[in-house]
Design goal:
Helix content: 55-70%
Largest sheet: none
Order of helices and strands: HHHHHHHHHHH
Number of helices: 11
Structural class: mainly alpha
Shape: elongated
Number of domains: 2
Number of strands: 0
Radius of gyration: 34 Å
């Protein structure tokens, strides 16, 4: 009896032993035309065994790359794509630097800070006014996403001014900012608050039930 431990290692197990044997047979063919025909037939079989690859862009290119990998890069056939080498798969990708930019206020995010930094270069008064109200309401929405219990308009105006280094100044935040209830409704968080308020005092609710039971039995 032949065991898998005594057989050659499968380089890509998802294609199975039979495909590996077909590639080994193609490598033994002396005639180049016969090898090319065998390689194309194997590609079709590989595509049938892994139909999910068809959803990927240029999936046939990937099949040909897998064919050369399973031949240990020794199959000599005419490929419609650039023939990969063992070195190209062994090389490590370039090291990616982790972003080191410091975010001044975490729940507002990095891009909010970038937009506020750009406000320093705005000279037009109308554009500066629009930026003030637009970013103020946007920051209030971000704040409510982070903490949907409550937010003071004065706090948003203060942080808007601080994060823009004084470029954006909101004089009447209570009038200029959208109401908290309206923003919560837009974010779909008003129902959450209502549910939390209903369940704030479960003991009082249970006491009310007990009193109803007592009245019922007294009758």
């Amino acid at each position: 009896m032949e065991y898998n431990t005594t057989r050659n290692k499968l380089l890509l197990p998802e294609y199975g032993r039979n495909v590996q044997n077909m590639i080994a047979h193609a490598m033994d063919l002396i005639d180049r035309d016969e090898r090319n025909k065998a390689a194309k037939a194997i590609i079709e079989v590989m595509g049938e065994l892994n139909p999910h690859l068809r959803d990927e862009e240029d999936y046939r290119h990937k099949l040909w790359a897998h064919l050369f990998i399973m031949s240990d890069f020794t199959l000599d056939v005419d490929s419609p794509y650039e023939i990969p080498t063992e070195e190209s798969f062994a090389s490590k990708p370039d090291h990616m630097e982790y972003p080191k930019g410091r975010i001044r206020v975490g729940h507002f995010g990095k891009y909010t800070q970038k937009i506020l930094d750009s406000a320093k270069n705005i000279k037009d008064e109308k554009e500066l006014e629009y930026m003030t109200y637009a970013m103020g309401n946007f920051m209030k929405k971000q704040y409510l996403t982070h903490n949907n219990t409550a937010v003071e308009n004065a706090l948003i105006a203060k942080q808007l001014n601080r994060l823009s280094d004084g470029a954006l100044n909101m004089e009447n935040p209570d009038e200029d900012l959208t109401s908290t209830n309206q923003l919560l409704k837009t974010l779909g968080l008003n129902n959450v608050n209502n549910n939390n308020n209903r369940n704030k005092n479960p003991r009082k609710k249970q006491m009310g039930k007990n009193q109803n039971y007592k009245k019922k039995f007294k009758r």
